[in-house]
Recover the amino acids of this structure.
């Protein structure tokens, strides 16, 4: 993998996987390997090698969220155990928002926008 | 301030406080606006712990005391209405270590997480933060 986003994202994923129960100072579950696998697999199959690394945000239900706020876009993709993945995209240039399952055919609507997430 | 019954419903305009842990990380850098924003990920927990504003008032405690023992963390507030409008339940759940503890109960998919994040205001803010905490 020579993708610009890969090493930084994997480092973020390892930090997330190292979190213990209660990592949010409340009662969060540890991040599940399955959530991370799903997230990395999705990124590897869908985003360009030149894409900037996302922020890797652990979720209290054992999931993980990848997010970018750049290129006039807000993009958030969440993978949690036993849940359908979710994606939110806001395009500030057009004022358009999408809430979708990133594994659904609707992803094709937002995929072209993701080229605006280039690494600087 | 009159005493608050532990079984009393939480009024819609009561502030609910939630710590934001930058190490989680639940603060992410917004390259569009060049500022730190909260992540919707901070609101995923189906049993979301919060500090309840009316109990803090009764105890004559400023909300910032919710950060006692949590050095380096930040604090946001949202009205209970933001949760109940999304069909979530707000309950009082006093604990020996935190009598103002409460919980926002219910599954929080993306739409709900966004609604809570959007309703937030800073109480204790990081340097270089976005205003509001979750700009849309």
């Amino acid at each position: 993998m020579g993708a610009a986003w890969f090493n930084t994202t994997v480092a973020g994923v390892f930090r997330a996987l190292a979190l213990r129960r209660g990592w949010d100072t409340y009662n969060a579950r540890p991040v599940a390997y399955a959530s991370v696998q799903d997230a990395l697999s999705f990124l590897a199959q869908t985003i360009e090698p030149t894409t900037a690394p996302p922020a890797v945000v652990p979720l209290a239900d054992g999931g993980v969220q990848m997010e970018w706020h750049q290129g006039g876009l807000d993009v958030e993709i969440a993978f949690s155990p036993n849940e359908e993945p979710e994606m939110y995209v806001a395009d500030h240039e057009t004022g358009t928002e999408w809430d979708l399952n990133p594994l659904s055919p609707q992803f094709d609507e937002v995929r072209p926008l993701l080229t605006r997430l280039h690494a600087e | 301030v009159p005493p608050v019954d532990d079984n009393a419903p939480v009024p819609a305009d009561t502030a609910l406080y939630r710590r934001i842990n930058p190490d989680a990380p639940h603060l992410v850098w917004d390259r569009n606006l060049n500022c730190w924003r909260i992540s919707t990920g901070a609101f995923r927990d189906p049993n979301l712990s919060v500090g309840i504003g009316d109990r803090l008032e009764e105890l004559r405690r400023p909300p910032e005391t919710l950060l006692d023992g949590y050095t380096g963390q930040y604090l946001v507030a949202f009205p209970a209405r933001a949760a109940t409008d999304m069909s979530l339940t707000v309950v009082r759940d006093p604990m020996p270590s935190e009598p103002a503890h409460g919980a926002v109960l219910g599954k929080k998919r993306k739409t709900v997480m966004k609604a809570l994040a959007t309703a937030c205001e800073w109480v204790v803010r990081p340097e270089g933060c976005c205003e509001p905490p979750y700009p849309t």
